[in-house]
Amino acid sequence: MVKSNNFDCLVVGGGLIGMLTARELVRAGVRVAVLERGRTGRESTWAGGGILSPLYPWRYPAGVNLLARWSQDVYADLAVQLQEESGIDPEYVQNGLLILDPDERAAALTWADTWQRRLEVVDRSGIQNLEPHLGDVPEAGLWLPEVGQLRNPRLAEAVRKSIENQGAKIFEHTPVEGLVVHGDSVQGVTTPQGVFIADKVVIAGGAWSAQLLGAIGLQLPVRPVRGQMILYRTRPGLVARILLSQGRYVIPRRDGRVLVGSTMEEVGFNKTTTTAALEELQHEAHRLIPTLAEYPVEHHWAGLRPGSPTGTPYICEHPGIEGLFLNTGHFRNGVVMGPASARLLADLLLVRTPILATAPFRMEEA
């Protein structure tokens, strides 16, 4: 049983969004507890690729781009801070994103001008210089040299250690079964380990967020969307850039591992992997980098993204329950939107001037 269960704020969900939110709050002097149904950082945080850009960002609404741009501008410094606070290197690397879909050119150039992001149109020779081991080389591509990546499991470990060192309490294997609401105000949550008391509760439960709210009759259009990925173990330097083509991406890590993803499947809370997805991802991997066919697949896994209607997350106080906040629905872009989402939520909860306009992220407008 819980020995001390009285806190200023409870963060429900120990993924990257929840833990970054806890970091913002604990740094502001808030007594925070993070309640995680399983292990921290082991759901969509662990399962994703860690690209610090939305895929085809021009396809997303302004809210996604606002959060992504703010986060991109702070991530290099944040990675250094987290390593200093935790002793764990999140492995931030700025190796650029090479998009091999020339038909995206017009939309991409408009987006780059609007959002003031560096983007270059490169010809076939330029593509080959950027990625010598590429298979079929198109006549033109799009090069975003400022895009970086992080090793998301290490990022989650670093954030967890950081917030623990700063006084946040983490309770793993502590599923929240319900919200304690008196009148129009939240008072805490119920768990198998006991009742946790706080007059501020942040729902950051990823794909499970709608279930948490549904327990008290609230509707939230966030659903699980399965994504499957595979991992090759190759020699360092085999792939130089993050690659994106026909909706599939290749991500090289420092140690030579190469991630390839990912699928988009509406199968509820089913996290099993499938042979069909494995074969399809291998085919795409070999199409993009033929040399990968010489290496075995080291791992194949699936995760559940918190899908929202437009990909725009809900970052707001619930319109009907005082003290109940939402930071969820980040769909495929939780890592790249994470720092801005956490900061914005903290601004709202602490009644500070927000870093961004809040309208795109309200529950009734998101």
Q: Say what the CATH topology of the largest domain is.
A: FAD/NAD(P)-binding domain
Number of strands: 17
In the CATH scheme, the class of the largest domain would be Alpha Beta
Mean pLDDT, as a whole number?
Answer: 95
Q: Helix amount, in percent? A: 25-40%
Radius of gyration: 20 Å
**CATH level-four homologous superfamily name of the largest domain:** FAD/NAD(P)-binding domain
Strand order of the largest sheet: 4-5-3-12-13-14-11-15
Shape: globular
Put simply, the count of helices is 9
Question: Can you walk through the features of this model?
Answer:
The protein is α/β, with parallel strands linked by helices and 366 residues long. It folds into 3 domains: 9-51 and 154-222 and 310-361, FAD/NAD(P)-binding domain, CATH 3.50.50; 97-145, no CATH class; 223-305, D-Amino Acid Oxidase, Chain A, domain 2 (2-Layer Sandwich), CATH 3.30.9.10. Helices cover 30% and strands 24% of the residues. The chain has 9 helices and 17 strands. An 8-stranded mixed β-sheet has the order 4-5-3-12-13-14-11-15, with helices on both faces. Strands 6-2-1-10-17-16 form a 6-stranded mixed β-sheet, covered by helices on one side. It has a 3-stranded antiparallel β-sheet with strand order 7-8-9, with no helix packed on it. The longest helix is centred in the N-terminal third of the chain and has 25 residues, at 62-86. It is globular, with a radius of gyration of 20 Å.
